[in-house]
Specification:
alpha+beta; six-stranded mixed sheet; two-stranded antiparallel ribbon; 8 helices; 8 strands
Length: 255
């Protein structure tokens, strides 16, 4: 998806839902869209209800979800929510629908658990599959991995041993954003107008960072940015790019 400025009349959730809707119109098949914790909430789930796409959302570890309500007893309003499931409180967990352990050559021994039929408090009409990914025996010394919580919404969920790998592709994008902001000073300038900020972003960083990351891989991104920006850097090391950029960025013309 392209970088777009969020106006005062929009929210990150509404903007992302609008972009996803545009993309699905151009694709010939139903996509699987992965989003970070900022979109793992009821507002985004509701905004994407009528979009023909599967969602894989990361959940904050302190979030709560609710199960399917019990059968109507004939008195009062029907219940919308069932059992309260706190991700950070194992005592509230119900019996998992599916559990498996797999050996990953890069990560180690991984335990994956799945619970069916849960939803956010403000989106009871959107049932989700809750997935917990825990590295119980990491490869190498002194390696620690945080427990990963995911929610899946869609038509046909991929196999449990594969679905968590699909989300891991997002981490390359997150590391690239950090590299662009911290080492390439993407967000350091503070232009006086919106138009100037957009020109700076368009000229000093690729407009399609997400697309470039998914196609090239993280280790090739510094080279791709160097070629586009015209900076004299090594073609074998991203550190050379950050070092050269830090010496030359102050000489760039104003947006």
């Amino acid at each position: 998806m392209r970088h777009k400025r969020i106006t005062s009349f929009e929210t990150p959730a509404s903007k992302a839902a609008f972009q996803l809707k545009q993309i699905t119109r151009e694709l010939g098949k139903r996509p699987l869209a992965a989003y970070d914790r900022g979109y793992g909430n009821a507002k985004f789930v509701q905004a994407t209800e009528k979009i023909d796409a599967d969602l894989l959302l990361r959940l904050a570890s302190n979030r709560c979800v609710w199960g399917t309500p019990s059968a109507y007893k004939g008195r009062g309003a029907p219940c919308k929510h069932g059992h309260k499931f706190k991700l950070n409180d194992p005592e509230t967990w119900t019996e998992a629908t599916e559990t498996l352990e797999v050996e990953d050559p890069k990560v180690g021994r991984v335990k994956v658990m799945r619970w069916s039929g849960f939803h956010f408090l403000q989106s009871p009409n959107r049932a989700m599959e809750i997935i917990r990914v825990e590295v119980i025996k990491p490869v190498g010394r002194n390696r620690k991995f945080q427990t990963l919580w995911l929610a899946w919404l869609g038509q046909t969920m991929p196999a449990l041993e594969d679905i968590w790998h699909k989300y891991l592709r997002r981490f390359a994008l997150e590391h690239w954003y950090r590299f662009a902001k911290q080492r390439l000073y993407w967000t350091l300038p503070q232009p006086s107008s919106t138009q100037a900020a957009e020109r700076w972003s368009d000229s000093k960083a690729p407009v399609n960072l997400a697309t470039l990351a998914s196609q090239s891989g993280l280790h090739r991104l510094p080279i791709a940015l160097a070629i586009e920006s015209g900076y004299p850097v090594s073609r074998t090391c991203g550190t050379s790019l950050s070092a050269n950029f830090s010496r030359h960025w102050h000489s760039c013309s104003t947006p």
